[in-house]
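hey so i finally got around to running the thing on that chain from the lab meeting. sorry it took forever, my laptop kept dying and i had to restart like 3 times. anyway pasting the input first so we r on the same page abt which one it is
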Amino acid sequence: MNVISKRGLRKLTAKHPAVESDALDWYRVAASADWTCFADVRGSLPGTDMIGQVLVFNLSHNRHRLITTVFFATREIYRKDLRTHKEYDRKEWRKWC
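ok and heres what got predicted. didnt touch it at all, straight out
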């Protein structure tokens, strides 16, 4: 998959430094993955949810959410935001759905 972008992911982790290693682990998995559908994603990362074209990955033992937009046909994932569980529950991220 083409993950857009690692630099942007590092910017997001600057606000949440405790999740940086988990986010970079996620990046390595996603960048080397050959996902063609949501079932493929769940096979690699079972704690993932899909709402519309938005994939929400659980990081740091379910304490953080990485919100991305995915386009399986072009094999692209765009990182949108990284939020704590509490911030995620406010549902402001749904604007990307």
